[in-house]
Amino acid sequence: MGRYALQRLIGVIPLLFIVSVLVFLFIHLIPGDPARLIAGKEATLEEIQGIQHQLGLDLPLWKQYFNYMGDLLSGNLGQSIRSGLPVTDMLASRVMPTLWLTLLSMAWALVIGLFIGVVSAVYRNRWPDYVGTLVAISGMSIPGFWLGLVLIQVFSVQLGWVPTGGVDSWKSYIMPSLTLGAGIMSMLARYSRSSMLETMREDYIRTGRAKGLRETVVVGRHALRNSLIQVVTVAGLQFGFLLGGSVMVESVFSIPGIGRLLVDSILYRDYTVIQALLLIFATQFILINLIVDLLYGVLNPKIRYS
Amino acid sequence: MTAHLLEVEGLKTEFKRGDGSITAVAGVSFHIEKGEVLGLVGESGCGKSVTSLSIMRLLKDTPGKITGGAVRFEGTDLTKLSERDMRRTRGNDLAMIFQEPMTSLNPVLRIGLQLMEPIRLHLGYDRKQARAHAVHMLKLVGIPRAEEVVDDYPHQLSGGMRQRVMIAMAMSCHPKLLIADEPTTALDVTIQAQILDLMKRLKEEQDMGMLLITHDLGVVAELCDRVVVMYAGRVVEEASVRELFANPQHPYTKGLIQSVPKLRQKVRRLDSIKGNVPDLSQMPSGCKFAPRCQFVMDKCLAREPDLIPVAGASERKSRCWLTQEENAEGGERA
């Protein structure tokens, strides 16, 4: 396992390099000149050139990349074009709400999704399966923004149980994470159902029963672990999409997270912030894939030992 | 009279298909004594495996269901047991090994854990005792480095080794009856011989009854005391191994024996039984073998013969009109 984990970790390095190059190039690929944008419409050519020099935009590209990487490694993501504040400071307060939101969404989606999937598979074509299917299909087909608004209307406005938005207490996270996780929960429920059904037909399940094991042991110990290998893949991919979903959910529930920061930055063409967010999203995606790969190793001895 | 170790009586198993149902096992009866090896022989699709799964009540997750008859194990009808009592019997007094050693072990769990499951469950050993017993069983089935293999995963073992593990698992709680469903079919010929020798040795050491399901008459000759031949979900002949090979009664058995290539005989083509096993949903109305039988008579197409004792032999039965005629002639002469 140690060797396998090390291999995966080393494999991440070239990916991170490619991501850093692409993110660095972003500022050069967008239409218009960032220096001109910072200087404003009325600026003279000298002023613009001054800013270009100040930002290092007049240097050769490779030198700019080295400067960029140097700054990055020392934790400097540049300054916001719009507010002039360091980007790291702007991110600092925004990362945690988004992190909590995505982790909570994923956690409940995994637990409930797996539960529904396993129950549906065990009681295939009986009423628990039909209920599970109904829940899953609803979760998949209801648009997130609509679900969010309905939740606000019912539980905040009418019942007053939870706040409509913000991040003042843990209660504020309940509805946003319900909204964000619904789609993934449904997806996981469907995948774990089909994966469980497939596993339950395997010969070793029959072996387990032939030993005289209880059905709960056969399902829990023998079937579930094998099904998880497939479910983990889907969960990992979906986790990546959670980031996209968080942009919408943070807007609906007024959560000051990086999803909303991205929307605002795009509206104001705050390129340095967008660049930093791109880097965060891409790195996060790579890390999640790394975790999925490591989980494969934990779940599947064939991978671990080869 | 003491009860047989296993007595299957009029077992009937049906499979749901669409609106109707198909009878895979149509009133099969046989018995096994303590320490006896009974071979259950027939072509693919004749109902051998379904019979064994019915005895173990392992038809869950298939559309199959036992719809009649009794399976008495030491006098207790297994078909009437509660699921809980059936679980206590499975893997304990009544164990089973399967055809596919490559897929019959769980790929994500260590060999030791899978071996220890029935041991802890039925013998009530704690973890340490169970592990020691698992190692002992691995040694018993001839696995080298047993202390290390307990911590291996199935993919680290060859097919032959995995089948040995399956045998060790089945034997670990000292079953009184072992059901072996084509235990050597998926293995290399050299490995087959080793596994058969192993099963023979263990059977003698533990004085265990065995139901050996196979289509391989060589395996039957090697291991069995008596044989039941099945065709289209029915028993067509029952005999001791010696009698079966020396003087097969049913034309189907004759065909089976003739289709085995012989060492000293020069042949251009292997003999085979012409035609195919009838589709279970379109059974002929008379004798089920009649469409393929070289001795077929009008009577055969009209009505199915009963399984009747063969005159002049003990515990010998055949389901053929010819046997009835020979019995009658023998009776006249006497």
Automatic annotation (TrEMBL), chain A:
A GO cellular component annotation in the UniProt record: plasma membrane
Location within or outside the cell: Cell membrane
Keywords of this entry: Cell membrane, Membrane, Transmembrane, Transmembrane helix, Transport
The ABC transmembrane type-1 domain, residue ranges: 95-296
Top-level taxon in the UniProt lineage: Bacteria
Membrane-related topology note: Multi-pass membrane protein
GO BP field: transmembrane transport
Coiled coil: none
Record Pfam families: BPD_transp_1 (PF00528), BPD_transp_1_N (PF19300)
Location (main, coarse): membrane
Chain segments annotated as transmembrane: 12-30, 99-123, 130-152, 172-191, 231-253, 273-299
Annotated PROSITE patterns: ABC_TM1 (PS50928)
Function in brief: Part of the ABC transporter complex GsiABCD involved in glutathione import. Probably responsible for the translocation of the substrate across the membrane.
Family: Belongs to the binding-protein-dependent transport system permease family.
This protein's name: Glutathione transport system permease protein GsiC
From TrEMBL, chain B:
GO annotation terms (biological process): peptide transport
Gene3D superfamilies: P-loop containing nucleotide triphosphate hydrolases (3.40.50.300)
GO molecular function: ATP binding; ATP hydrolysis activity
Keyword annotations: ATP-binding, Cell membrane, Membrane, Nucleotide-binding, Transport
Membrane-protein topology: Peripheral membrane protein
Subcellular location: Cell membrane
Residue span(s) of domain ABC transporter: 6-257
One of the Pfam families matching this protein, by short name: oligo_HPY
InterPro entries: AAA+_ATPase, ABC_Ni/Peptide_Import, ABC_transporter-like_ATP-bd, ABC_transporter-like_CS, Oligopep_ABC_C, P-loop_NTPase
GO cellular component, one term: plasma membrane
Similarity field: Belongs to the ABC transporter superfamily.
Family matches, as NCBIfam families: oligo_HPY (TIGR01727)
Record's protein name: ABC transporter ATP-binding protein
Organism name: Cohnella nanjingensis
